[in-house]
Amino acid sequence: MKYLITGVAGFIGFHLAKRLLAEGHRVVGVDSLNDYYDVGLKHARLRILEQFCDTGRYCFVRGNLADREMASSLAEGCPDIIVHLAAQAGVRYSLENPRAYSESNIEGFLTILEVARRVRPRHLLYASSSSVYGSSSPVPFTETALADKPDSFYAATKRANELMGHSYAHLYGIPATALRFFTVYGPWGRPDMAMYKFALAMRAGKPIPVFGDGSMRRDFTYIDDCVRAVTILANKAPDGEDPHRIVNVGNRRPESVSTLISLLEQSLRLNPTLEHRPVPPGDVPITYANTELLESLTGFSPSTPLSEGVAKFCEWFESYHGSFEPALAGRNDSDAVVGQAVQPHGRRLLEGDRRVQVLQAEGNR
Question: In 268-294, which positions are buried (b, 16+ CB within 10 angstroms) versus exposed (e)?
């Protein structure tokens, strides 16, 4: 099976690509490698994917999906399944730089919809977010709940994606699934998210910024569970007159921020100092997924306990920051070439079994 994965240098995209490649699939990975968070971490993820370059089943494309020319280039690859994970993430940053969200989340998704219109994949899956539920939806959140009052501009762009996806599914018969992810965490996670941010502060001996009194709860979903759900759903495309659906991907167990901090303290063996701050605009008090639809479609529902997931994250965290970080220091990420299989977006993709060898030859010139 040929997959096109956008956001492949990101947290979920990296793990999904690694799993699919290990299972023998072919993957074209796309990422702009923007600097919203440490680009060195993104390069480190991509270096792990390099091991598949020699198989002829993987190549990486660096480019901005807001560039309209990307649609023509990516469509030439004729992927069987598209998984669109590229986006400008972060609720709070959307207050500072809303145009970044309009460009990446709206324009970028439109590019992918145009790719799907041209190639008619078996299935288009794309990342939405639990943020679309806002603070007015009853818990646990169900996919049928009205999600028309987003609490942040980030959430508004994700809800807009769902409406755009539905329109293309209706107009062009493209089977599409919106994935409402709930606080995905684990090894190789995002440094802007609470778990990683808290661990970094504790390691540096700095206070942990806690918004409110620590009682806000999140439905933390372990990365392996998330990826398993996506890979099963990929082979279960919706059908009918409007082949579009929305699926929650969550753990069904909201845990408080205070519980998270206690678990980090146990695993890292460090005593944190807390710095309480006002709850910023856009944050919601709780996220809580109803996953009955996911389970009915796949026979699977995420279930990794937070205690187990935090321990695995901390094991990776200590390994990464003990061995990888010095090697990344001083790297000029803007000019870095990730392995041999890097391809500018204007060239053909997946032309045949010799693709990677050709790219390697170009990279060695």
Answer: beeebebeeeeeeebbbebbbbbbebb
Q: Choose, from 93, 101, 126, 154, the residue flagged as catalytic.
A: 154
Domains of the chain, start order: 2-185+223-251+290-302+326-363 (3.40.50.720)
Three-state secondary structure of the chain: CEEEEECCCCHHHHHHHHHHHHCCCEEEEEECCCCCCCHHHHHHHHHHHHHHHHHCCEEEEECCCCCCHHHHHHHCCCCCEEEECCCCCCCCHHHHCHHHHHHHHHHHHHHHHHHHHHHCCCEEEEEEEHHHHCCCCCCCECCCCCCCCCCCHHHHHHHHHHHHHHHHHHHHCCCEEEEEECCEECCCCCCCCHHHHHHHHHHHCCCEEEECCCCCEECCEEHHHHHHHHHHHHCCCCCCCCCEEEEEECCCCCEEHHHHHHHHHHHHCCCCCEEEECCCCCCCCECCECCHHHHHHHCCCCCCCHHHHHHHHHHHHHHHHHHCHHHHCCCCCCCCCCCCCEEECCCCCCCCCCHHHHHHHHHCC
Whole-number Å distance between alpha carbons of 320 and 114 = 38
Q: What is the pLDDT of residues 273-282, one digit of tens each?
A: 999 999 988 7
User: Which residue, 23, 10, 2, is CA-closest to 355?
Assistant: 2
Q: Does the predicted TM-score (pTM) go above 0.90?
A: no
Rounded mean pLDDT of 310-319? Answer: 97
Cα–Cα distance list, 174 to 144, 170, 211, 265 (Å): 21, 7, 41, 47
Longest Cα separation, the chain: 59
pLDDT tens for 137-150 read 899 999 999 999 99
Asked if 80 contacts 3 with a C-beta cutoff of 8 angstroms, the reply is yes
| Residue 126 among the catalytic residues | no
CA distance 88 to 19: 24
